[in-house]
Amino acid sequence: MKFSAAFITAALYVVSVSAHELPSRYAGQRRGNQFVTGPCQQDSDCQQGCCAFNTGKCAGPAVAQTRDGGCGHGSPAPNCNVAAALKLSDCAPGAVNGDLSSPAIQSAAAFVAKLDNIPFTPTAPAAAPPAPPASNNAGGGGTPTVAALAAGQSALGFVTSACATDSDCQQGCCAFNTGKCAGPAIAQTRDGGCGHSSPAPNCNVAKALGLNECAAGAVNGNLQDPKIQAAAAFVSILDNIPFTPSAGSAAAAPPPAAAAPPASNNAAGGTKSVSALAASQSPLGFVTSTCATDSDCQQGCCAFNTGKCAGPAIAQTRDGGCGHSSPAPNCNVAKALGLNECAAGAVNGNLQDPKIQAAAAFVSILDNIPFTPA
């Protein structure tokens, strides 16, 4: 089974940002801002172009085919438009696809291609010029590159981590109502804005990125503040949103590296919570990072054929499995998550191994897959 790794903008939830190429002239045109599990009425409400047919919640366009009856909630029949545009083979029974060259489908496919490292070539000319490159190296007054600004954020709290202030979070948003790290855009409509522990909410990072929706009562600070600029840079890479740093951000020292959240144990039998297990994966390699072994990667999968970090499910069908540098591939993390597809010749280890459990926990949060730690 192929699945989409998305989280969260706002998901998103990833971390260890690298200055990898953001692949598509279409990705900047996507209409929806909702991330996985966000409520939706139609595919165009969702970042990944898939409003699950059975649930009315945003979903990965591949996993929705096998779990949610396809995409296309609100339509007479489901579709697998984005999955088909990405040349993924599984479609839900009864799926009826539209014009795969439409800008909405193409932009969603470009977004997913970047997110999950899936090869994708647009099939229609872009309606708008390409987004500006993610770095500003023209020498204008010492303005740092987007990648340089973003780098310091990777050690901070990921989405759903407990936080006291915005500066505790990778995406620069500690949700006002919940005290948990959140995507800076979705927090405006779902969580009362950002700025937990402040007298009033804010939409600082969203505004710095040129996004217009702010929570009621939001009071913004100085958008050239180095911390806001760094968070905006991180989100711009994560969600392929064009962003040009302000010159004032050059004076910023990198944010201090925050320690991983303490591993809290549940009361029953000392079994760690999913979030506590997942926390240790945050500093590891992001998808497409070079790796030698599975333990180098956030998602616990160093693709067998490529030696690059990959999603543990898609690696089974695209990359010969996980386990680069081992005599045989494995599908350890996929199996720990209850996913059934394994690469040919896969030989699994002990699924209760702490490293496998931690990676499975990370992926379960990233892709909203149910998981109970062993």
From TrEMBL:
This is Biotrophy-associated secreted protein 2. It comes from Mycena citricolor. Keywords: Signal. Residues 1-19 form the signal peptide.
